[in-house]
């Protein structure tokens, strides 16, 4: 973060020098922010609307399986998340559970292969 701030200051100074060469009145004094952010401060995070009320579940899979899932999802115009939710819902149904994880936009398995 400090490197990026320093780069920004250097970039501002370079722009000021460039404008000075072009005849514009720009002070060549290095300006520092009046209220610099503390070193450990983090920017506020943007809340993802699609993640409201949800928790993540992480699974580690082999790279080849990950790539295959992404390609399969792309070919069927859906997401890997939707595929996983649909698979878990089917597993729960097969195991006799009367509840699902579904979010309302589940992936529907096509009966015919794509052409």
How would you describe what is shown here?
It is built from 3 helices and no strands. The radius of gyration is 26 Å and the shape is elongated. With 115 residues, it is an all-alpha fold. It has helices at 2-21, 63-75, 80-94. The longest helix has 20 residues, at 2-21. Helix content is 42%, strand content 0%.
Based on DSSP secondary structure assignment, what is the total number of beta strands? 0
Radius of gyration, taken over Cα atoms and rounded to an integer in Å: 26 Å
- Counted by DSSP, the helix tally is 3
- Sketch the major β-sheet: none
Spell the H/E element sequence: HHH
Descriptive keywords:
single chain; 115 residues; mainly alpha; 3 helices; 42% helix
Topology summary:
Blueprint: H1 2-21, H2 63-75, H3 80-94
State the gist of this model:
This protein has helices spanning 2-21, 63-75, 80-94.
């Amino acid at each position: 973060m400090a490197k990026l701030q320093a780069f920004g200051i250097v970039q501002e100074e370079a722009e000021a020098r460039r404008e000075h060469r072009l005849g514009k009145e720009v002070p060549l004094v290095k300006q520092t922010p009046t209220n610099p952010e503390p070193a450990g401060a983090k920017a506020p995070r943007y809340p993802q609307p699609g993640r409201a009320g949800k928790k993540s579940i992480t699974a580690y899979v082999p790279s080849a399986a990950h790539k295959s899932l992404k390609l399969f999802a792309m070919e069927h115009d859906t997401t890997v998340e939707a595929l996983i939710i649909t698979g878990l819902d089917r597993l729960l149904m097969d195991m006799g559970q009367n509840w699902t994880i579904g979010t309302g936009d589940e992936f529907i398995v096509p009966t015919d292969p794509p052409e």
